[in-house]
Design goal:
Blueprint lengths: L2 H15 L17 H5 L8 H13 L4 E8 L11 H10 L7 E11 L2 H4 L12 E11 H4 L7 H8 L6 H7 L4 E6 L14 E7 L1 H9 L9 E5 L7 E5 L7 E7 L6 E8 L8 E5 L4 E9 L6 E6 L6 H4 L2 H13 L3 H30 L3 H16 L11 H4 L11
Antiparallel strand pairs: 1-2, 1-12, 2-3, 3-4, 4-5, 5-6, 6-7, 7-8, 8-9, 9-10, 10-11, 11-12
Helix pairs in contact: 7-8, 12-13
Length: 408
Amino acid sequence: MSEEEKDEYDEELDDENFTDLDEVKDSLQELEIGSEEDESLNMDDFSPEDIDGEKEAIQMSREWYKRIEIDLWKTQMHTATMGIRQQDQYRAQSRQFTASMEVKGDITFFGYSPEDLTKPLKERKREKKILEYKEVLGINKSFWDPSDENSIIVKQAQKLSQDYDPDKYAKLLRRLVIKTFSELKRDKKKKGHAGRWRGTLEESIINSTNGMMGENRGKARPFFFINLPGYNYRVGLMRTHTIIGDRYMFTIPNPKTGELTTFRIKGRRFTPGKDFFVYNSETNQRVAEIDDRKLNIGGKITIRFRGEKEFEELNRSVVFRRILILFGILIKFLDDLDTKYKHIYKALKKKGKYLKLIRKAEKKEDQAKIDAVKMKYEKIQKECKMIKSVVVTNSELTLHYNPRRIRT
């Protein structure tokens, strides 16, 4: 081998061992899709049976709830925890209940009696009236549980094990998908529509990253899409900029008139849990409140609605009510999401420091320094203290398909 060929060979080895960490392929991702993820790639978010099931929800809208309680179970020892057979029954009722769904709690509705609704607010009876109708809530553990070896995020992390520690990287790939379903116990012949899908809240990592990078200090700005059966529009729920405290916003379009109504969910300060007031942003009227019982063993959230006559139409709105239910469930996951996005922001910013050191060494043509910098930052990257870029799977990408695109 000539000296010239030897030098070229050594350069190839250097390139192989010390690949520039800032290299990003500008080609479309071709990701292998697991069976669980494949189930979530349906373009239509609801099917005919879900719309049929929503007839009952429309019937329910005649109720005026004074409060709704969400109970997230602490352990799988809960008496209502489902077995495999029950999970199969849920899957048979709605395709929204995928193989990776795990039931994590239930939702109880408290309503006024018909007699109470005819009386002024102060004259209504205060004793509890628990409706027979209940729901269960679940999360897609394949997108959320980094300890599950069969989960999509773990498999995706293992594909990139050459660059990152899979155990640490899987935590950065987590994506929250929450769904609610009518309780399976319901006798279909008498009550109807047991185990039907009632709503989905799905984290958008793309929009969340966009919001986070727009902040000077990289504060977490999670963004979520909310889909409801029979409602043809996705509702965006996002955390917005505040100097102190938390604030989330969502806007509901009226399908008949096109009119928009925007609501503000504002965090309350100096409370034990994460408590919120819900306001109509246009009138600044407080329309509901969400109470997080911090000291509860598992996790209870109570939603209370204003009972005055002027709020009757809003309180009977299935869309408004379900958005608040999904947000109430989300509260228990906000700390985990904040931790994830803060880590991602710091890890992305670390790449800028790496590039600065590399360019400085290259300017001096100091190969030893270049190699030392690469070796140091390869170790940092392995520990996920630096990442090349945020990575999403196909289930996230399908959230952002252009519905008006040309399809072949």
